[in-house]
Amino acid sequence: MATSIWFWVGFNAFVLLMLALDLGVFHRKAHRVSVGEAARWSAIWVGVSLLFNAGIWMFAGRQPALEFLTGYLVEKSLAVDNIFVIALIFSYFAVPEKYQHRVLFWGILGALVMRGAFIGAGAYALERWHWVIYVFGGILLLTGIKLAVRKDEGFDPEHNPVLKLVRRVMPVTADYDGQRFFSRENGRRMATPLLLALVMVEVTDLVFAVDSIPAIFAVTKDPFLVYTSNVMAILGLRSMYFLLAGVVHRFVYLKTGLAMVLVFVGAKMMLADVFHVPVLASLAVIATLIGGSIAASLLRARKDDDDEGPGSGGGPGVDAGGVERSGQTAAPAAEEGAPAGAASADRAATARPAPPAPAKSLAPPHRPTLRLRGY
To answer: Shortest CA distance to 304 belongs to which of 244, 252, 350, 348?
Structure first.
């Protein structure tokens, strides 16, 4: 659809206003985000997105509105995989609960900038070189297949090259300094472990953007619809994290559903010049795959709960978050503000991990590796 520059200006002004209200008013004081608060904000963001979708229908017509809704659903679904990794990052660095929202706020703000650049580059490439559509389709097909066959995987930020670069460029304190990303020790400016967690969140989103951006281009090539559907889905990621991080491990079949969605949209792009799939059909297929995988997961979780009975544990080496522990047992809890070196990778990836026991180094010599089970 032909989009006036004022639509771009108005939408971005609205996003900046909502972000300013979020951090400057509603979350001005660091606090633990409860499930109830997360549920309310999730409902608000979904409602705002649907109102925006209704506005597109009113001013641009049915087809652009369906394209926005389909792109929004794709991005929202792929964000669930992102949530699980973010939970592991917070657990690894033992980020106190009341500071997690701040990390997600700035992480999402950075993600909006990066994804805006990605979308602009993708739209330009598709308009200039038609064969790029086959590259995007191939990326989605390979990613979907890889996601379907992926088994357990390790998570060890210590070997991440970006994190190594940050530590090489700037010294890092051993302790958290409230919700600050930088601190001073003996007059020397240093990064805090909260900055390391933020860097890992940004790197994670960058990786996921490689999948999600081409997936939305498979639905629509309109840059405004690609951008707005992506942004509206990302804005609700923080509240969705606090709402789902503690139970996302129970969606054991969601990975399969996401893989099938990626394969579907990848094949749709690859066959674009041969067979056109109507956007309404795409929306129905994607909604069926995601909804079916969630329903099957909930039925499986209910059956497992019935089989285990009351008081059943996760078994040795497995905690309630569905994460296997290898190398050592869980450390005892410590008070909030313990040294960041105590970021125990052997703890469960829940939405609110308890601060682990203190240690003296951010990189203990025998740090265990998290193994993801069923996702």
So the answer is: 252
pTM greater than 0.85: no
Q: Among 115, 125, 324, which residue's Cα sits nearest to residue 202? A: 115
Are the beta carbons of 149 and 158 closer than 8 angstroms? Answer: no
Residue 4 CA neighbour count, 13 Å, CB half: 5
C-alpha pair distances (Å), 356 with each of 112, 189, 343, 366: 32, 26, 6, 16
pLDDT band of residue 164 (cuts 50, 70, 90) is confident
pLDDT in tens, 56-73: 999 888 999 999 999 898
Count CA atoms closer than 13 A to 143's CA, side-chain side.
Answer: 25
Percent of the chain with pLDDT over 70: 76
Inter-residue contact 344 to 88 (CB < 8 Å): no
Residue 262 tokens read as 């990626």
Domain ranges of the chain: 31-310+319-372
